[in-house]
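Might I ask for a little of your time on a matter of protein folding? The record follows directly beneath this note:
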Amino acid sequence: MNLSEVKKIRALARGLQVVEFLGKRSKTSLNELHLATKLPKATLLRILSTFEDHGWVYRGLGDNHYRMSVNGPRFDTNNGEENELIELSSSILIELCNNVGWPSDLAIRNLTKMKIIDSTRRQSLLTINKDVVGFCPHMLWSALGRAYLAFCPHSEREEIIISLKTSEERFDQVSLDGPWVEKLLNETRVRGYATRETGYWGHIVDYPSNVDAIAVPVIKNNKLICCISIAWASGEVTKNQIETEFFPALKAASDQLVGKITY
């Protein structure tokens, strides 16, 4: 029998269409899939659910975008390690959020800033600034940035600080105060975690209250991979809670993620 005469499997063809589209992108929304494939959203949801069940596709916690799983087909993308981090940390971040009652952010270095790549803010009671995925906090003001700077290799830290000193952004001007920076980073290393500068937002907001946060590094084989933070509404958490509950839980989450990372 000629292959051209064989009846095609329509459902499989649709599924392959979705995989092909996902494979060419680091992430995509349901609506983007719908517009690109012309398939009904109900059909797409069934396809995506099937792929999720088989470990081929997963959905980010912070943005609800779909990505190819590390267990799925491999495609050439520029966000392989980033997407793998998001997938590997998903269950860890959810467990952390459930344990402490406040959300966490996962961030990687992005030149002289940090970049939040996933978050459990949508899964938590914290109603402030839920759409943080993609936001890039400043190095010397955010808990995530301070954790990265304090624990990254000396040569990398020097490179970042030199770049910050030439920046025209007002949040980077504090890098010119060398003694202050050194004291801040030394205190962070001794304490084991970084803190967010009180009142820091990094962008214009209209929220009535501030947010506090702490962050720790995730280090695998002496390589700083990313940082994880816990954020809460100012005044809702005591210093004792931070020391006895939040920091140990955050450190445990970091250790769990280190155990999952294979690169």
Remarks:
- The mean pLDDT is 84.
